Structures are given as structure tokens and as C-alpha cells.
Sequence to fold (154 residues):
Amino acid sequence: MKLALVSDALDATSGWGRYAGELARELIAAGVDIRLVSPRSMATMPDLRDYSDHREIPSFQHGRRHPLRVFLRTFPPLLRALRGVDVVHCMVEPYAPTVALAAGRRPYFVSLVGTYSVLSGRPWMERWPLRWSLRRARGLPAISRYTRRLVESD
Fold:
């Protein structure tokens, strides 16, 4: 079984990037067959940037961050990157709607990393696709009990 980890960064200096990078390293060390899906320019951890099964997608943090633009830029390369993958773990919420569509019938999970996951704090244009993708996800691993409580009460 092949697992895709979708992240915007693999970078020890950012919350999302550190979480994704450490999880990727642990899974690789445990012998899990993974594919990294992230912008190479945002992969500052050399072992992960040069990982043999690393597919590239555009960063949502650069250029216009409008949700529709993020979707349009990300969907085609993400669809290609997920070929041959059995399960998808979306490490950052802004990619969740795109991952939900690109995953098709494959199971996917979305990490709840912080208050970005709280729907009521998101603009309406982000809120409804994010809500849809979170409801459709097979699982929502939260980084903390606090984040889980906030998301569940929202």
C-alpha cells in the first residue's frame, strides 16, 4: 500500500512544515511506502527534498491565495502525483478541498494542525469547500486536544 503525504512545506522552521517533515521521516524510517507531494522549493530538509518518490505541486503560500486559484493551480499536478497511491494524508488544510477531489474514491485524511481548521474563522469562500472536504475525509487527526475541541464545537 502506498501512502501520499501532501504538504506545502517540509521545513523545520514552520509549524505545518515541521509536522509534515517529522511525520514523513518517521514513516520512511518505519519502512512505510510513501510518496511526498509538496513544492520542492519549500522542502528545506535535504533528505526529504531529495527523496526518490517526491512529486511537486505549487505552493499555496505564494502568488494569489484565493481558494479558487489555489485549486486551479494545484489540481492538475496533484491528480498526476496521486497516480498509483492507495491512501492520501493531507497535512495542511488549504489543500484539503483539492485533495478531496483528486483522491476520488481513495480514502484520505486531513490533519487538523491548528486554528486554521476552525471553520468559523475562515472566509466564506474557504469555509464551504473546507467543510465539505473535512466531512468527506476518512479521518481527521488533530495535533492537540484543544484543536480537536475547537473543530468539533464549531
User: Anything to note?
Assistant: The first strand starts at residue 3 and ends at 6. The mean pLDDT is 92. Strands lie at 3-6, 34-37, 54-55, 87-90, 108-110.
